[in-house]
Amino acid sequence: MQVQSEKFWRVEEIMQEPEKNQITQILLQAFQPEKAGGIKAVIQVELSGMNGGNYYLRIENGHLEGGEGRVEKPHLTLVSDMQTLMDILQKKSDPMNAFFQGRLQVKGDMGLAMKLIQVFKNPWS
């Protein structure tokens, strides 16, 4: 399943534990294309916990697409649990603190990981 970054649903309707098929939608809703200029990357997101799974994101030319599944040779892999990801997206938790506390693992391009902090906003705001 591939999802384009069209915002056609309301994130506010998503509960704290989103359904598996809503994870990519939440990430697409949080994406800020105006802040993604110059980024060309494939990102793997591995989530554990309730409704966790493997997801991928492709960013290029200020455009984001993603879906469920794995990709080969991502530029960056983010490993976390669902609650930590939701806390980061809602700005309840700082991604750097989550990293240093071991709740978020980053494999690959650390510079890209730092850029992503600015590229994704709180989808509930």
Short summary of the structure?
With about 120 residues, the protein is α+β, with helices and mostly antiparallel strands. It is built from 4 helices and 6 strands.
Question: Mind explaining what this structure looks like?
Answer:
With 125 residues, the protein is an alpha+beta fold. It has helices at residues 23-30, 82-89, 95-100, 110-119, and strands at 3-4, 41-48, 53-60, 63-68, 76-81, 104-108. It is built from four helices and six strands, in the order E-H-E-E-E-E-H-H-E-H. A hairpin with a 4-residue loop joins strand 2 and strand 3. Pfam families: SCP2. This is SCP2 domain-containing protein.
Order of helices and strands: EHEEEEHHEH
Which percent range fits the helix content?
Answer: 25-40%
Low-confidence stretches: 1-15
**How many domains is the backbone divided into?**
1
Main beta sheet: strand number and arrangement? Answer: 6 strands, mixed
CATH class: Alpha Beta
* Rg: 13 Å
Per-chain topology:
Blueprint: E1 3-4, H1 23-30, E2 41-48, E3 53-60, E4 63-68, E5 76-81, H2 82-89, H3 95-100, E6 104-108, H4 110-119
Protein name: SCP2 domain-containing protein
Pfam families: SCP2
Domain SCP2: 33-121
List the main descriptive attributes of the protein structure presented here.
125 residues, alpha+beta, Nonspecific Lipid-transfer Protein, Chain A, 6-stranded mixed sheet, disordered N terminus, SCP2_sterol-bd_dom_sf, SCP2 domain-containing protein, SCP2_sterol-bd_dom
